[in-house]
Structures are given as C-alpha cells and as structure tokens.
Amino acid sequence: MTFFGRSIPSGGTRILGWAAVGFGACVVLVLLGSLLWRLLHPPVSPLTDDADPRSAIQLEVVNSSGRKGAGKTALEFFRKRGFDVVEISTSNDRPRRSTVVDRVGDRQSALKVARVLGIADTLVSAEIDSMRFLKASVILGSDLDKLEPFRD
User: Strands 2-3 and 99-102: what pairing?
Assistant: First the structure.
C-alpha cells in the first residue's frame, strides 16, 4: 500500500486504521461533550421578547466589590452578550455576595441577568422603582472571582 507516495508495509495499514478510529472517537467525544455542555448551560437570551430584536434587557451595574475596573469588565461582558447596560456606578457598600435586583417587576429578565453572570436565583430580589427605566440592577460584591466574567 502507498500513502502519500510512500510504500507502507502491510502492518502499517493496521496502524493507520487504528489511528483513524482513534481520531474519529476523539471527534465524537468532543461533539458529545459540546452537546452535554449546551444542555447543562443553555445560552441566555438578552431579549425580553425573542420576536423583537430591539427588546434587549436594560440594566445597570453597580461596582460594590472594591475592585477597580470590575464595573467596566461586567459592562463589556454584558454588552458582548447583547444586553443593554445603560449605567455603571460605584458604591462604598461592600456586600459579600453579588446580587441582581428586579426594578420593574419582570422577574424573568432579572433571572436571565443572574444566570448569565452565574448568580444563584436565590440572590435575585425585587425593589420596584418605575422611575429608573431599567429592568435590573447588578450589584457586584466581594465574590467577584466566582462570577463568569471574572473567572480565569
């Protein structure tokens, strides 16, 4: 047998056959792993209405972590995923845990924001304030390293 113009002994064809099987098995494992990952971590839609591409969830980011630049990092993370970050601010409060606050009574939007960050649903609260004109506020606490945009 020849392979790329070179003669291969008959035992070499077995090696090539097993190499092809091994390569195929690796490809199948990677694809299965990717499918499993997507099933366990489905993508989060940044829209309040999936039929209207202009319905991006509007939110604010409050950096209460004490880490300089954390608000900007979160802003870039959210915008890359299609969320509309309308404001970043800093607070001197130092909460231990990061939270999401529902501002208009749309808990589903607040939960989407929490999920994309990696914040537990139990850390989503409601403080309705119709004068804020945004769906949710993200309060970054001292647990930044556990959140998706800050993991290494």
Answer: unpaired
Q: How far is CA 20 from its chain centroid?
A: 35
Inter-residue contact 147 to 119 (CB < 8 Å): yes
Structure tokens that stand for 151 in this block: 């993991």
Three-state SS string across 29-93, please? HHHHHHHHHHHHCCCCCCECCCCCCCCECEEEEEECCCCCCHHHHHHHHHHHCCCEEEEEEECCC
* Tokens 């993991």 -> residue: 151
Name the one residue in this structure whose structure tokens are 């609260």: 125
C-alpha to C-alpha distance for 67 and 63, rounded to whole angstroms: 8
pLDDT in tens, 17-62: 777 777 777 878 888 877 676 666 556 766 766 667 677 899 999 9
In degrees, rounded to 5, the angle at the alpha carbon of residue 114 between the alpha carbons of residues 142 and 124 is 80
Among 13, 149, 152, smallest CA distance to 71 is for 149
Cα 8 from chain centroid? Answer: 49
Q: Which residues, at least 6 apart from 120, have a Cβ–Cβ distance to it below 8 Å?
A: 114
pLDDT digits (tens, 9 = 90+) for 64-93: 999 999 999 999 999 999 999 999 999 999
